[in-house]
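Final report, Chapter 2: Outcomes

The project's central promise was a pipeline that accepts a single protein chain and returns its three-dimensional structure in a standardized token representation, suitable for archiving and comparison. That pipeline is now operational. To close this chapter, we reproduce one record exactly as it appears in the project archive, with the input sequence first and the structure output second.
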Amino acid sequence: MSERATAGTLASQPTARPDGPTDDAPAGYPTVGILALQGDFEAHAKILVQLGAEPREVRVPADLDGLDALIIPGGESTVMTLGIEREQLAEPLRELAARGTPILGTCAGMIMLDRRHLGLLDGVAERNAFGRQTRSFEADLELDGVSGPPVHAVFIRAPWIAEHGPKLKVLAEVDGHPVAVRQEKLIAISFHPELSGETRLHELLLALISD
């Protein structure tokens, strides 16, 4: 597959934390929630600690209180949808976004942010757009907003943005299909940076906290 996008600038990396996550974030450390209803949220937590942030698992609306940013990880979008409905998280998540809290959605997280789900992104994601598990692949992408070498992206049953409105900015494409997009402080990508050790998408999220 061919990959194409444009290069940009990368936000400066925060100072790494000297310790692991705790119940209360130390002064100066941003608190980043990770929706923990399903998916590999622990891998995202490890990256956040590496970058000097305090991760917090989010399972109920009260877990959203005081967050500086949020990650919606990959997994099964159907299971996530049922979990969000069960815990009555949909409206609190919309309110969080309305307050300008930065949100990063990866793979299934992209789907959850689209018009048909939480309705936060001005676009519609197509599930399993590249095919089922056996069609998983890896690619090096140039992302607008991320400088340095290409981002090594791991695609597993990945979606893409099938249609979008003018509010959505495309950051990267694969074969003409948007796989990374941004809308103000919302970032959605169809791949798994946490699986390749790629930290720059998490850095971009953290930079949006003070933007």
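Archive annotation: The longest helix spans residues 41-50.
This record, like all others produced under the grant, will remain available to the consortium after the project formally closes.
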